[in-house]
């Protein structure tokens, strides 16, 4: 069974928990605890392959300028970077997160890194309060060679599921490339890092 780890990152209130819960339960419940970080776990089948999925939903991001993200960068196979289209500050924060992830991946196979980051402009239902244009999100994603979409965790169930599915598909196809190249011993190193990065876990 493939183990896939996804970190959902973004500014406070951007909708990280709403997106995660929407994907896992297909529901939007409106209010989400933001005082505890969680790793949700779920078993699913993707393209005939069994997957043990872990999704990291942090309670809040460190302040700008303190973007170490060291644990997350070691732990995650892929990232969903979320901003709120009605909050320009959240877009600036998403940009800083993207840069941090990309700089840490310098030297890693370019194609693998490109496909495992998804930039998401959330709260599309609030387009009457829009502060960030669709084209700005698209350009940021293109400049950083990651995928992009705008959606609403509140109103778009299928879009949220499709976005997560794309992320998982990209990660598992990267695994296939990695498996061909993986030197022996790297699996136990991955386990070691995973043990060091212990988080509270929830099964769904
Ligand atoms: N209108 C609208 N509201 C949303 C949407 N997604 C999330 N919200 C609301 O935005 C608020 C913050 O959402 P959360 O999912 O808790 O955001 P978060 O990024 O997890 O926030 P922290 O955990 O505090 O960092 C909540 O009141 C949600 O109901 C959306 O697509 N549209
Ligand atoms: Mg949250």
From TrEMBL:
Keywords: GTP-binding, Hydrolase, Nucleotide-binding. Gene3D superfamilies: P-loop containing nucleotide triphosphate hydrolases (3.40.50.300). It holds the Pfam family Ras. InterPro entries: P-loop_NTPase, Ras-related_GTPase, Small_GTPase. CDD domains: RERG_RasL11_like. SMART domains: RAB, RAS. It catalyses: GTP + H2O = GDP + phosphate + H(+). Its EC number is 3.6.5.2. The keyword Transmembrane helix does not apply. The keyword Cell wall biogenesis/degradation does not apply. It is an enzyme of class 3 (hydrolase). One of its GO terms (molecular function) is G protein activity. It comes from the Eukaryota. Belongs to the small GTPase superfamily. Ras family. This is small monomeric GTPase.
